C-alpha cells in the first residue's frame, strides 16, 4: 500500500512537472507568436503610411508643379527657391577652344581641362585631377582655402602638354562649380549664403565667391578668368544638353537631391532684368526643400527631421535621398527591436546609433537574392552587431528596405512628373524629352532606379512615357561647367 502511495506521488510529481514545462512552452510560444504579431503590425502600419498609389504620386506631382509656379512668381513665394542661375545660353556643340572647370562641393575638389573642337571635333581632349582638401582648411580662413585651390590649379596649368592649346593673347577661362548655397548676382558672381557639408570657412559668408577665387588666382600668378559660377545641377544640365539636345532637366539623386531645368524667361515673373536674347533661363529649383501635405510621412520621418541638423528643412530630400534612406530603415528596425524583440531579448546597442546604417548597406541587403539571405545576415553582423539573426527577421529587414526605398523612388518620380507637367511634356504625342540624371543613389541602387522608371511609366501612361527618356550623365557637371565657361566666354560676340 505504501509503495502504491509513493508511486502515485512520483507519478503526480512527474505529471505536475510536465504540466509546468508544457505551460512554459506554451507561454514562450505565445510570447514568440506575440512578438511576430507585433512585428507584423509595425510593418503593416509602415506599409500603409508609406503607400504611394498612383493617385498619391499624381497629387505630389501636381503640388510640385504648383510650387514651381509660386517660386517663379516672387522671391519667397514658395519653399522652392527656384533660383535664377543667370545661365541663359546653353552649350550648342559649336564651342571651340581650351576651357577649365573647378568643382568644389565636398571633401575633394576636381580640376578639369577640355579642348573643344566644335560640332565635328566635340571633346577633343580632356584631363581631370582630383585633390583632397586637408581637414584644417575646411574650417580655417578663406585665403588659406582659396590659395590652396588656386595653387592646385597653378600646378595643373603648369603640367599642360601640347594636346591642349590656348591661342596667343587669350586668357584662360574657367567654369566654377560651387555646390553650396549661393545668391547668384550674375553669371560670374554670387555671394555665399552659408557653408554646409562640414565646411565652415571664416570670413566668406556674404562675400562674392568668384572674387575670393579670382584674388587667390592673382596671388598665385595665374592669368585666368572665372566666366561662369554654377551649381552642380546646372552643370549637369549643361553637360547633358551638350550630349543630347533634347535634355530639358537635370536631376541629382546622390547623398542629397536637387533639380534644374530650362524655363522660358518670360515665365519667370520675379525676374527683374532684361529678358535674355535666347528667351531661356536655367532655374536651379533647390527641390530638396519641397514639402507638401500630400507627402506620405511617418513618425520615423518626423523624428528624423526633428533630430536633424536642419529641422523643418529639406523635407523632400529627407524622404528620397541617399543620406537618409538607410537612417529611416534603422529607425524602423530599432522600433521592431524594442517592441517586438526582433533581434532577441536585448536591443542591439549599435542599432541606437544614428546613421550607422548607410544607404549602400541598405541597398546591399535589399538586393540579396540568396536563399538564406546571407548578405542580410552578414551586413547586420558587420554594421549593427546583430549575430545569429533568424531567417524570419532577415526577411522582415528586406521588407522594410523595400517599403522605404520604393516610397523614395516613387516620390522622386513624382517630382520629375511635376517638372514635365510644368513644361507641358507629360502628355502623349509629345516630342522626345530627356532627363539627365546623376548621383550614386540612382546609379547604384538598382531597385530604386527601376522603381522610379516604372513609376514614370505607370503614371504618365504607356504612350506619353515612350517619349520620356532618363539618361545617366555621369559626372556631367565638370564638363558642363567648362562648357558654360565656353558659352559665356568673354570672347563671344553677342
Ligand atoms: P554626392 O551626392 O555626395 O556628390 P554621389 O553622387 O557619388 O555623391 O552619391 C553618393 C551617394 O550615393 C552616397 O552618399 C549614397 O547615399 C549613395 N550610394 C552610393 N553607392 C550606393 C549603393 N551601392 N547603393 C545605394 N546608394 C548608394
Ligand atoms: Mg555629386
Automatic annotation (TrEMBL):
Keyword Nucleotidyltransferase: no
Single GO molecular function: ATP binding
Domain Hexokinase N-terminal: 43-242
Gene Ontology CC annotations of this record: cytosol; mitochondrion
Catalytic EC class: transferase
Pfam families assigned to the protein according to its UniProt record, in alphabetical order: Hexokinase_1 (PF00349), Hexokinase_2 (PF03727)
InterPro entries, per database record: Hexokinase (IPR001312), Hexokinase_C (IPR022673), Hexokinase_N (IPR022672)
Domain of life according to the entry: Eukaryota
Domain Hexokinase C-terminal as annotated: residue spans: 249-486
Protein's UniProt name: Phosphotransferase
Pathway, per record: Carbohydrate degradation; glycolysis; D-glyceraldehyde 3-phosphate and glycerone phosphate from D-glucose: step 1/4; Carbohydrate metabolism; hexose metabolism
Reaction equation(s) it catalyzes: D-fructose + ATP = D-fructose 6-phosphate + ADP + H(+); D-glucose + ATP = D-glucose 6-phosphate + ADP + H(+); a D-hexose + ATP = a D-hexose 6-phosphate + ADP + H(+)
Keywords, ordered alphabetically: ATP-binding, Glycolysis, Kinase, Nucleotide-binding, Transferase
EC assignment: 2.7.1.-
GO biological process, one term: intracellular glucose homeostasis
Record flagged with keyword rRNA processing: no
Cross-referenced PROSITE patterns: HEXOKINASE_2
Family: Belongs to the hexokinase family.
